[in-house]
Write a structure and sequence with these properties.
Layout (H helix, E strand, L loop, with lengths): L2 H24 L2 H23 L8 E10 L2 E10 L5 E4 L14 E4 L23 E4 L4 E7 L9 E9 L2 E3 L8 E3 L3 E9 L1
Helix pairs in contact: 1-2
Length: 193
Amino acid sequence: MAPRTAAVHNAAILKVEQSMLKALQKRGKMLAVVAGVAALLAMGAMNAGARARDGVVAVIASNIVVDTHDGQLLAKVTIDNHSEHTIYVPRVLANEGEPEGNLFEVRDSSNGDPLDYVGMLVKRALPTKHDYVAIKPHGQLSTRFDISHAYRFMNGRHAYQISFSGAFVNDVNRLDQRTPLDVATAMFAHVGQ
């Protein structure tokens, strides 16, 4: 992303964060829900805009959305392969449920402080080609992770920013040649107990 585009993008994110936090602090639950939905829509539009350069969409793109369902806080990660060749991502990104490690960076939107990861940690050997899954050309991988108990959320209602940055390989026989994904970021509100 060009420096000017990145600055505009970051300023827009900050504005959305500030308005969402104000709504959370001052106006109650209904407005907080509306602000949260608006923030998610705005973030999706900003992420799409950041990935599009002169009308060209990124060849490999990632997106993240956080939603609550039946008391669970679900982070849905989507990786789109708009290219003409198969790519491979770590298999851990295809395992739904609680993340098997600290896959995300979750921050308090009011001050930027990171939340502690308190979830499951799985020790693994160095990855082999069997630890990767394929995303076919013009295909997509979409996985939901339950992050309800994976991070130390604060008591009460708070706004958070979550980001995910992963990597992919073009050849499972060359795992040392990883290519980073565009960083996917989203805002969400959560009431901690």
